[in-house]
Amino acid sequence: MSIMKTEEEVITKEPNLLQGALEDHALPETKLTLPENNVCETEDEYELVYHRPVPLLDVNMHYCPGCAHSLVHKLLMEVVEEMNIQDKTVGVAPVGCAVFAYDYMNIDMTEAAHGRAAAVATGIKRLMPDKYVFTYQGDGDLAAIGIAETLHAVNRGENILIVFINNAVYGMTSGQMAPTTLMGMKTTTTPFGRTNEAYGSPIRMSELISPLPGAFYVTRQAVHNAPSVRRTKKALQNAFKYQQLHKGTCFVEIIGNCPSNWKMTPVESEKFIDYEMVKTFPLGDVKLPKADDLKNLTEGQ
Amino acid sequence: MKGNEALAKAAIEAGCDAYFGYPITPQSEVLEYLAREMPKHDRIVLQAESEVASINMVYGAAGAGFRAMTSSSSPGISLMQEGISYLAGAELPCLIVNVNRAGPGLGTIQPGQGDYFQATKGGGHGDYRMIVLAPSSVQEMADFVFLGFDLADKYRNPVMILSDGAIGQMMEKVTFGKFKSTRYEKPWATVGKSATRERNYITSLHIQPEKMEKHNLKLEAKFRVMKETEARFEEISTGDAEYLFVAYGLSSRICHKAVDLAREKGIRIGLLRPITLWPFPAERLLQLAGQVKFMMSVELNAGQMVEDVKLAVNGKTPVYFYGRLGGMIPTPEEIVHQLETVIHEHHEN
After folding, report:
1. B279 Cβ partners below 8 Å, 6+ apart?
2. In what order do the strands lie in the sheet with A284-287?
3. Over the stretch B174-226, which tens digit does the pLDDT of each residue have?
4. Which of A78, A255, B103, B206 could form a disulfide with B211 if both were Cys (CB 3.0 to 4.6 A apart)?
5. Which residues of chain A have pLDDT under 70?
6. Reading across the β-sheet that carries B276-278, which strands appear in turn?
7. Which of B49, B60, B201 has the CB atom closest to A120's CB atom?
């Protein structure tokens, strides 16, 4: 049985998720001058309400329309900018759709072999314990070929942030089954739908790692509507700040849209997350730090 | 001191900032020694969950500009090949030690030289080269750590020390303090982007073929310089030699003894011991090919380096091979006997 929604279902059952968010945050009528050399300037009579985060490079991204990656890249760089830690941040890019992440983020970055990001980040962080080190990985990279590196890095409590984009497919190689592919979901390598007999059930990484003592903060978020984007940003802010505490690994799983490989429009993909993905991957915090552990946390740097 | 421990001690003296390893016989002493000693020097040591993780931790640390090292033995080195290819592709300096045991597969924990092809021809994928140093004594186990780190930093390329179970486990006198470690500037390292420079990123990915070829050619130019300038070897009794052994590491020690025995019998034989297996001392072998009646490559494998000897002499002199396998070690007498047999056959032909 396919669990993909027909177009009709999507349209008739579509709740207006964006409406509330838009009403809460009605965009002010302002005119911006275009950013120049990554610096936004406003004329006196205008109020600056938004600018591209400076650490996000002003280049065209290769991502498909509706893809979650570009949005998460932006959120990451917003956090880096707000915390003013561009000079103290080192990222590790994966193999997968985000393989070119270092082309978009104006920070020092290392491109890891497939699945090895957590080991590479371990090498970086152990030698530079005061730097902010994060990995950015997809579900094939992190939960299939790299599950050993991931589990052991978390078990050691490496003081890194692991950003885990879970879109239930291999995106870059164009839509093969991932360890997180939903039951019954059709992919190019499960043309009749994923079955338990052949492949078992989707791995819930956040739930899998959260019992490990080295896991400090584990949360699952999404970026498919405005409220979820805000919550993801908050989670990333927390995770970056928690690195100052040297208490363990922060793991931020983000359910990402993949309209191209889900064979959906971007809008349909948002609904697919709301109706299907969250059944297997419920959104929310999986493991929160103890209040005691947060006592020494300072704001900003 | 044990060969593996001498190597580990040298790593600390050569300014190794971080060691990542995984237990495997016959090299576990390296990890054990460094687990004990590195913290005393405020260095990083970590037992990884696998050799795959070790080499990638090295990748991270090397990319951040630190002197990083790993060691393993044959099956573990096979697991590291992916990482070595990435290190070479991303031009990251590091030191990798292979205390060679006999294979294939799990093989045996006894010494072997069956990883010659893997080490010198690029065990990982893609076009890359790596300087391979072959110690034949405990002293060289220590000395080559300094040399290896310096060559790695000089060329921004991984360097391998290819030892074997016997050299790693044997005990000999060793002197330290002969070499000083050199510190190299690494402005390319990923340490956090300062406001005054462009971002640093470390990658082996160049998706456009034009750019990839350019990167390949840049690497090739570097490898050419290594090939022209870094070949190292030792010669024993080659001055008047009619015949020549070619052997490295453990087998070169046995051949050294065999040279003495053969000369007592009046056979004028010499030994050329490649110290770098890549670059291979081909030029010197070609010169010697004009002097000797034949060469004999003696290896603890089924015949690997002999191919490079043949390539080097390019038919100018016959090249014979003698090898033992499976962790078996020939005696000097056995080698002299082989030599005598070959001399007999050679002169009958």
Report:
1. B131, B226, B227, B228, B230, B231
2. A284-287, A215-222, A249-255, A161-166, A132-138, A89-93, A108-111, B201-202
3. 999 888 888 899 999 999 999 999 999 999 999 999 999 999 999 999 999 99
4. B206
5. 1-45, 298-301
6. B44-47, B18-21, B68-72, B94-100, B158-164, B131-133, B276-278
7. B60
Q: How far apart are the first and last CA of chain B?
A: 48
Flag whether A301 is in a domain.
Answer: no
Largest CA distance in chain A: 65
For residue B134, is pLDDT > 60?
A: yes
In angstroms, rounded to a whole number, what is the distance separating the alpha carbons of residues A212 and A173? 32
Interface test with A, best of B34, B52, B57 (most A CBs within 10 A): B57
A120 lies within 8 A of chain B by CB: yes
Domain of residue A251: give its range.
7-289
Q: Does B243 touch chain A (CB under 8 A)?
A: no
| Residue B318, pLDDT above cutoff 80 | yes
Number of domains in chain A: 1
Pick among A38, A126, A141, A156 to test the B interface (most B CBs inside 10 A): A126
Minimal-distance CA residue of chain A relative to B52? A116
| Residue B51: HSE in the Cβ half-sphere, 13 Å Cα cutoff | 21
> Which of A122, A134, A159, A160 is best to mutate for the B interface (most B CBs within 10 A)?
A122
Q: Does B48 touch chain A (CB under 8 A)?
A: yes
Q: Tokens at residue B8, please?
A: 């580990």
The two three-digit tokens of residue B195, written as one number: 């406001």
Average pLDDT, chain A: 89
Residue A297: inside a domain, yes or no?
no
The per-residue DSSP string of B158-188 comes to: EEEEEEEHHHHH-B------S--PPP---TT
The first and second tokens of residue A27, run together, are 């965009």
Q: Which among A92, A120, A127 has the least Cβ separation from residue B66? A: A127
Task: Indicate which CATH number applies to the domain containing A160.
Answer: 3.40.50.970
Strands B94-100 and B68-72 come out as parallel
Count CB-CB contacts under 10 A for residue B310.
Answer: 17
Determine the pLDDT at residue A121: 98
CA–CA distance, A227 with A182 (Å, rounded to integer): 24
Which residues of chain B neighbour A121 with C-beta distances below 8 Å? 60
Distance CA B253, CA B24 (A): 25
Residues of A in contact with B47 (CB under 8 A): none
Tell whether A148 is covered by a domain.
Answer: yes
In tens, the pLDDT along A59-107 reads 999 999 999 999 999 999 999 999 999 999 999 999 999 999 999 999 9
pLDDT at A40: 55
Q: Is the CB of B199 less than 8 angstroms away from the CB of A109?
A: yes
Q: Which of B220, B258, B275, B271 is nearest to B336 (CA)?
A: B258
Domains defined along chain B, listed by start: 3-192+217-229 (3.40.50.970), 234-348 (3.40.50.920)
C-beta atoms of A109 and B56 within 8 A = no
Contact A112 B64 (CB under 8 A): no
